[in-house]
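Model it.
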Amino acid sequence: MSNKKDFIKKDRFKSLEIAASRVSENISEVKDEIMETVVSRFAPKDEKLSEELQDSSVVEIDISKLSSAPEQWNFYQPLPDDKMLELVESIKDKGLMHPLVVWEQKDSYMILSGHNRKKAVEMLYEETKDSKYKAVKCNLIKMNEINEDEAREIIIDTNWIQRQLSTVEKAKSISEKYIRLGRKKHLGDGVKTRDIIAESYGISGRMVQNYLSLNQLIEEMESLLRENHITIKSAVAISRLSKDKQKWLYENFTSKQLSSPDIKNIEAKMTKTQIEKLLNAEDEYVNVNIKVPANKKAELLEKVNQWLKELN
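Modeled.
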């Protein structure tokens, strides 16, 4: 029998044996909080137990004892400089309001949630040399309370809730979540893994499937998506193709062509010739005759020409 604490069993990171239990009643409020404490986010409704958790699991740990999660686990981009400075100023003015989440290791404590907060505190210590920035409050998870998969789920879930993720980061998160759930025991009730993720993250099952598809993109296409040179819909369509055909598309077509409405009609079985014909199809033009007031002719022509330029 597992010896995990109740807050690990009952919170958002439990084994997901019933899909409905994955969604907290106040998830919309949680998404608006950038740095929720683990206790306030994940503690059970029992007030006495919540008080016990606050007393027993939140400890101060020297920042030199904190280690980052492996990059394969924590693949999220750090805060941009302007947001990091805002975080530094917030901690300087108000203190660290929300504990980090750390997992006890043999010689250190691995950060599962709070990499940016830890960096901000380090910056403050380097700037001020104030001893109050040498240690931070952490919600401590003991070594034997969770396993590697559960630790990685914590990283994924907290980043999904707290951060404004890029499309590529969302796709990677969904993929990792799917893998983690796939290793668990039968979930029962015939619920699909994608639907459990959808309910947990507040998105549709189709969107989960789309994000999973994006993980089939080659690096070059992923870069176009990350930089918003192609749309999500285009990327999903392109992901159906083999890596060879994706590479060919990248080398022979513009971002505009790859984001055209025709791209959605691409099928995996299409040959390169068929794809080329689809994307290079010329628009059919027709003459349109309309009557307008004579004094509006110039204005109309100007607007039509501007519209045609935008189309091209």
